[in-house]
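Marked as duplicate of an earlier ticket. Keeping the data here for the record.
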Amino acid sequence: MGDVTTAFFLTTFAGISTGLGSLIAFLVPNLRFTWLSVLLGFAAGAMIYISFVELLAESVGAVGFFQANAAFFLGIFGMGLLDRMVGHIHMDTLPDGNTLPISENRNLRKAGMLTALGIAMHNFPEGMAVLFSSLSSPYLGFSVAVAIAIHNIPEGVAVSVPIYYASGNRKKAFAYSFFAGLTEPLGAGIGYFLLFRFLTPEVLFLMLAAVGGVMVFICFDELLPIAIRYGDEHLAFLGVFSGMLVVALSLYLMH
C-alpha cells in the first residue's frame, strides 16, 4: 500500500480547492457559469474513466467480477442514500442560469449555509475516495484528487456567493467555503482510523470498487446535469471527452 502521508496530502489538496472556488468568485469580474461547465465536464469525464478503467477493472482482476461489482453498486447506492439524507442543495438551485446572482434577499444567507453543510457532508466520502485510491497507487490517487479538486471549485463558488451577497462580508463567505472543503481530509482521517486495521489487499480493492461507484454517482447526479444546464451541452461533452482523453493518455504514459 502507498504512503499514508502522500494520501493525506492529496486529500487536503482536493479539499482546499473548494476555498479556491470562492476566491475565483471574487477575483474574476462577471464570472459566468458557461465556462465552468467545461471544467465540470472535464472532471466528470476524468472521474468516469478512472472509475471504470482503473478502479473497477483492477478490483475485478483482484477479487473477482461479482464481488467487485457488488462493491461498485453498493458505492452508488450508499452515495445516493447519503444524498437524500443530507438534502444537498445543488448548484442548479441558484436563481440565474448564466451569471452569479447579484440581488440580495434574506434567503441568500440560509441558502449559502445549507449549501456549505451539504457540500461538507458530501466531501466525507470524497476524502475517503482519494485516500483509498492513493493507498493503492500514488499516481491513481493524484488523478482522483485532481478530478475531485476541479469539481470542488464551482462548489466553492456556490457556497461563497450567496453568503457574500447576503452579508457583504468577503471573509465570512470565504471561511464557510474553505471549511466546507476541509471536511474532505477529515473524512479521509475518519476512514483511515476506522478501517485501516481491516485494510487487507482484498478489502482495499473492494473499497476501490466502491469508490468508483461513489464517483460515478457524483458525475451523473451532479456534475453532468449542472454542466449541461449552465453551458452549451456540446461544450460540456467536449469537456467530458477531453477529461477521458487526458486520463487515458496519462495512463498510457505511466504504464
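See parent ticket for discussion. The chain has one domain: 4-254.
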